[in-house]
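PT: before anyone asks, these are the final sequences, not the draft ones from last week. 493 residues across everything. Please model them as a single complex and drop the result in this thread when it's through.
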Amino acid sequence: MSDKDNLEKHELLSGYIDDQLSPRQATELKRLLNNNPQIDAELKALEQQCNLLRALPKESAPEGMIEDIKIALERRFILDYNCRHQDSAGRWGLVFRRLAATAAMVLIPMGILGIVVYSIVRQPQTVQDTMPVMSPIPPIATHVSNPVPLPEEGTVAYSALLQFQAHHPVQCRDFIEKKIHTLGLMDMTQIRALSDRTSYKITASRQYVVGLIRDLQELWPQTEKATYALLAGQGKDKVLVEGIDFKQTLEMLNLADFKTAAELAKTFTEQNSQRDLAANPDGSPLDNPSQPILAWDVRPTEIEQDTSDTICLVIEVLGL
Amino acid sequence: MACLIVKYQDRLYNAILKICGNPDDAAELTQESFVKVLENIGTFRSQSSFYTWLFRVGINLTLTFCSRRLRLGMRSLDNSLCSKESLKLADVLADTKQGSPLANIEKREMIQRILAALEKLEDHQRVLVVLRDIEGMSYEQIAEVLQLEIGTVKSRLSRARLALRELLQAVWI
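LR: through. Structure below.
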């Protein structure tokens, strides 16, 4: 008989003495027991073994077990109560500390990274900031987006445009603003900054304007070209003097009569063209021969009729 | 609470003693079992009886204790179970109402051999033999205590009995 058969047989015997077999299994086992004395002997041995085990003396629990259990329960309750309170406080504290540590671990590197990035991004601007300021003079007006209101008709006897074309318009602009500031013409000056030019509209008495031009004498050597436009009625008529120099500008401004000024302008134009021909014998056209673009709608409509000494001069600086 | 303890303490202690073999350990394990059960009495569901629940806790604690003791190589220096039984038997022998002294001596010797064999069984086999043959639990109760199927209980109990018989045959010679 193999081990497996032996185990199955013993399981049957074990189940039989515990009355755990089905009626069919029990009948079959009884038949087997009647025919096989060896199995019957095994069954008796197994029954005897179980009887011996059942006959073992029953031990009683030590005396005072109830009291010991009560004491243990009380001790456990007190300890648990204390631990629970300590744990709850400690647990939240630990959670808070963990959160704080996590936040610090995230925020500190991010802050450092942000500072580094900011310093890198900010660097070019900082360099720009540290460059020497070309002109410490504060801006005389900042009405850039809104058009500057024009002087009322009939109040201006003379309107002209003096346009400079320069390679360094910023320096020229700063120089002009500085002079306006020095002469105290801020209230009489309106500024308009366009993308390619900056215009200063000065509406003041002839005396002040001529004084300003005198102070701007040093501007001519710094610019490539100066053009003077004498504006007539409704702004339609105008007399251009290209390449006008400092003295010619003063002469033009000192003439109150438009006709005389127009004739003088023609004279200056001829002179200047001859001068330019002498300077440029091949006859090629000069740079930027086109007429200046007016940034201001200057309309000296009442020049002939108005005898007041207030004039309007627009100084314009164009970059090349 | 006291009623529950009084009702079951002897049975639980006896079973644990037969499994772990040391009266002091058995007393402590019994006490611990009651404390655990009473602490968690709120979680007790009536799906099982209190008796099987208590024994489940007690047997689990005892098996854990035995496995830890085996791992640490700790073993009681004296066979407390046998000595306790011997002491008990000595009292029995002194009792004139019992059988003849010769019969008592034979009985005492037989008990010692059975206990020695029982102690040599593996823990899980000893638990089955104790619960069925000493404590007298039904197969269903054993299955509930040990969280096993009844078929598994049958086969394991059969093997445990077979192993015990072989051990008894060995110590009998």
